[in-house]
Amino acid sequence: MKNLILIRHSKSSWDAPVQDIDRSISQRGVRDAHLIASKTSTILPSSYIVWSSKAKRTQETAYIFSQYLSIPIETILFSEELYTFDVKKLEKCINKCENSYDSLILFGHNEAITKFVNKFGDLYIENVPTSGVVALQFNTNDWNNLSEGKTIATLFPSQFKNE
What's the CA gap between 162 and 143, in Å, rounded? Predict the structure, then answer.
């Protein structure tokens, strides 16, 4: 059994004229990341590894989640390869996960995340929002053999705005 938790980076700030990879998260992004991170521990497997895109907004999102999930920052693998919006590239990255790990948390980008969860999950999601979390489970022991997973949880900011 393999567990994959995909987390889309928080809302980007467009205040500064910077390259896309250098874009920070906005104040709303910070609030939403704290909100969703505070709910995420309820869906986590007992052990996991954590990967993140090297984009600034994705790293900032991972840092916020790491506070709530007690993830030591030095254990997060930050990769330029995960700075992708292409579902096939994202899938190839996930396929490279070592089979000794049963659970992977991945901080990444749309449209790759939405297309991935719709390709492999059993719940259609029109758009995984910023700060959105989707947990998938696969009945396989091989990351290179992912197919027909089950969507076991979604956590989106809009679900908790009225709390």
Answer: 38
Domain count, the chain: 1
Radius of gyration of the chain (CA): 15
Q: Which residue has the tokens 């869906």?
A: 43
CA angle 8, 10, 12 (to 5 degrees): 120
Q: Number of C-alpha atoms within 13 angstroms, CB side, residue 91?
A: 15
The answer to the question of residue 62 being in a domain is yes
The number of beta carbons lying within 10 Å of the beta carbon of residue 74 is 5
- Residue 112's nearest CA partner among 95, 91, 133 is 91
> Is the residue at 140 inside a domain?
yes
Q: Residue 32 sits in which domain range?
A: 2-10+24-159
The phi and psi torsions of 33 (rounded to 5 degrees) equal: -65, -45
pLDDT in tens, 9-64: 999 998 888 999 999 999 999 999 999 999 999 998 888 999 999 999 999 999 99
CATH code, domain with 120: 3.40.50.1240
Is the pTM for the entire model greater than 0.85? yes
Cα angle for residues 145, 43, 146 (degrees, 5° grid): 5
Q: How many residues does the chain have?
A: 163
16-36 per-residue burial string, b: 16 or more CB within 10 A, e: under 16: eeeeeeebbbbeebbbbbebb
